[in-house]
Design goal:
6-stranded antiparallel sheet; BirA Bifunctional Protein, domain 2
């Protein structure tokens, strides 16, 4: 048995099984060989989202992610978009949110960086669309993978991710 490390594996199946336009969000539990710490867990929940339609651009991706985080954290949420390599998208983009525990000044939660990485994203690769039977000359799309656990930590001021899995009623 192989435990999945991310939820992006559902993307190609959905792209092959459905035809554009499509807007899909898929939740799932993920497992990684990581040391458990304040902000990392060997298992976590992730949402994989993607949109495929005519004329989809990186601007649509940034706008979607910005509006989602403004809805969740308020209009003044500070996001940082940066180039990041992911093999399944091109170009790839990492998204960081200003640490809500220290307001960007640096603390143990954000590893003294002022920002916390919250998701990976990018434009769905031309060859992925083509391999899934979608004409990349007519359609484009974006995808993102977002960990629910870090969002919950930031939203509710939980300083240790392990509390989410410790069985305390207040965190369930």
């Amino acid at each position: 048995m192989l435990l999945r490390t991310h939820t992006s594996s559902v993307e190609t199946r959905m792209l092959s099984d459905f035809k554009p336009p499509m807007r899909i969000v898929v939740p799932g539990k993920c497992y990684r060989n990581e040391t458990t710490s304040l902000t990392n867990s060997a298992f976590f929940y992730q949402y994989q989202g993607f949109v495929v339609d005519k004329g989809i651009t990186m601007g649509h991706l940034k706008d979607t992610l910005t509006k989602f985080h403004q809805f969740l954290f308020g209009e003044n949420v500070k996001l940082r978009f940066r180039y990041k390599y992911y093999p399944e998208v091109s170009p790839g983009m990492g998204v960081d949110m200003e640490c809500r525990f220290c307001n960007g000044s640096g603390c143990q939660i954000c590893k003294y960086r002022g920002f916390i990485e919250i998701l990976g994203s990018g434009m769905i690769h031309y060859n992925t669309l083509k391999a899934c039977g979608i004409d990349p000359e007519n359609y484009s799309g974006f995808a993102f993978g977002m960990g629910l656990d870090r969002l919950v930590m930031s939203k509710y001021g939980i300083t240790d991710i392990r509390k989410l899995y410790g069985g305390e009623i207040v965190y369930l």
